Amino acid sequence: MGLFRSALDYLGAAGHWTGYDGILPLTLSHLKITLIAVLLAAAVGLTLGIALGHARRGGAVVTVLANLTRAVPVLGLLALLATNGSLGVTATSAILALAVFAIAPILTNAYTGMSTVDPETLEAASGLGMSGRQVLLGVELPLALPLLAAGLRTAVLQVFATATIASFVGASTLGNLIADGQATSSYDQVLAGAICIAVIAVILDLLLGAVQALVTPGTANPLRRVADRRAAEPAEATAKLP
User: Fold this and answer.
1) So what's the pLDDT on residue 237?
2) Between 59-71 and 23-55, two packed helices, what is the crossing angle to 10 degrees?
3) pLDDT tens for each residue of 156-203
4) Which of 18, 130, 156, 182 is the most buried (most CB within 10 A)?
5) Any alpha helices (H) in the chain, and if so which ranges?
6) For residue 42, how many other CB atoms are within 10 A of its CB?
């Protein structure tokens, strides 16, 4: 309890939030690295997953690529990229390593979401005269959106949590608080860094969960529930009239 109170005192000190190694600048840098890494992974994972899922081919390719990116140890890849002369100990090395790490959930979910769209639905859309492009954009992608969002949500949380170790290759993240605290035996600082990471991860999960719910068709969509409730109110009011 004493250590936890010390960590809260550390977080409560205004001087620890500003400056080069302050909590706020490190948080912004941590989020920036996470965003760039996920965008790079999405450029690969979404493009490949949507294309292969739409064609209903390449399931083995998706499995192999997803397993390969999962099997690569992030810390080892960070060290390997950091020793590259053109990259070195920079944030770029961390972003590239984290992007590789994020490809698996995005690719897998994109392929699954596209390939599991009901064939009868696609056939009905084609029967209505929709072109292949219209079917893709107007039917397949909207139906696959919940899984696409789930893949991005998983990737963001994984990358955000793993970006903590990016401080070992010179990237400014909240991991700096933990690394510096361990180096100076300031365990209140270590715990404070861990608390910041955990709280922000929970907030990100809640926000992305809300986005996922919004793009989910049916009763799971909160907007749909609100619309249904409003539509039911006039009918209930009419039923109560004598």
Assistant:
1) 47
2) 160
3) 999 999 888 887 777 788 988 988 888 888 888 999 999 999 999 999
4) 156
5) 2-12, 23-55, 59-71, 74-82, 91-115, 119-127, 132-135, 141-162, 175-183, 187-214, 222-240
6) 22
Helices 59-71 and 91-115 meet at what angle, rounded to 10? 150
Which residue would you say has higher pLDDT here, 128 or 103?
A: 103
The pLDDT tens digits for 212-229 are: 888 887 655 655 555 556
Are 87 and 93 contacting, i.e. CB atoms less than 8 angstroms apart?
yes
Q: Which residues of 189-205 are buried (b: 16+ CB within 10 A; e: fewer)?
A: bbbbbbbbbeebeeebe
Contact indicator for 173, 31 with CB cutoff of 8 Å: no
